[in-house]
Amino acid sequence: MASSATGDGMSEAQTSEKSKKTKNQVDESELLTVPDGWKEPQFTKDDNPRGLLEESSFATLFPKYREAYLKECWPLVEKALGEAHIKASLDLIEGSMSVCTTKKTFDPYAIVRARDLIKLLARSVPFEQAVRILQDDVACDIIKIGTLVRNRERFVKRRQRLIGPKGSTLKALELLTSCYVMVQGNTVSALGPFNGLKEVRKVVMDTMKNIHPIYNIKTLMIKRELSKDPDLRAQSWERFLPKFRHKNLAKRKEPKKKSVKKEYTPFPPPQPESKVDKELATGEFFLRESVKKRKKMEEIKVKQAEALTKKQEERNKAFIPPKEKPLMKKTTKGRNKGTSIYLRTKHMSETALEICIYVIHFYSSHGRQAGH
Hints:
With 372 residues, the protein is mainly α. Helices cover 49% and strands 9% of the residues. The strands form two sheets. It has a three-stranded antiparallel sheet, with helices on one face. A three-stranded antiparallel sheet has the order 4-6-5, sandwiched between helices. The longest helix has 31 residues, at 2-32. The protein is elongated. The relative contact order is 0.04.
């Protein structure tokens, strides 16, 4: 009885431990997943009533061609930043924009957003789009592409490939990532949610690495459709995504003489044999000079004879007639009597042929006389 009671106690403890583990697992999974439609609460003055301790400031330069536009829209910039209690100043002589915090600034991250705003304005992003950076759920990314490709012509082609015909590729990328993308000079400015900015950076970097953006756009389209299905959210999408292989059609030109690298050895190469060593090995060293000279002359004569025969063969090639193709005999049915007689005479003997020729001449001569 005691053993059964202890067994029941152990089983109850195990079941309680299992239930605790499952609860912990559920809690962790719930924490990791963000519910649909959830938004982070806005940072208000009640969260930081005392304000900031020190003043922070940022400045950036802008090109000459942006001067007229910035001068026109600067009152709107000051108004937008004034809501966050940030002071903005435009210096047209130095060609710079600067932002700094004030005593009334309560949001410590507002100065970082103001810095991103002036950076975007300097990179030719219109004010209507750049002002969105002041929102909590919007971020920006300025991708530098100028140093990714060495050849200038190749760089311009790849940058144009990213824009596409009449901006169609860029528009498709904006729709799929929910981001605003601006290609200007040596940079690509992107503005939108964090997930979209990751995809934009990947597409831009792959395009500069000679991977066409249409492949990444196709992948994004499939991901967008798969995200709509709640059953597939927790599963791997690798089986649905296309796998594109990089095909290098232009084969690399190989050198005519390939140098094969020898295996590295720490020991020096063996010393080559001298002329005297070779003569000692063959026994020529002990021969007389007259015999050596005679042997050399014989070798020279043999080489000369071989060279003469080769030259003679090359000369004779020009006199060898080429092989002629056999002529095909054409057989045509002639309507004239002469041609018909000629065809019949092929199977006759020489005597019969002479008789036929005599008869033809006889009739032709008598016909002329009768005509006269």
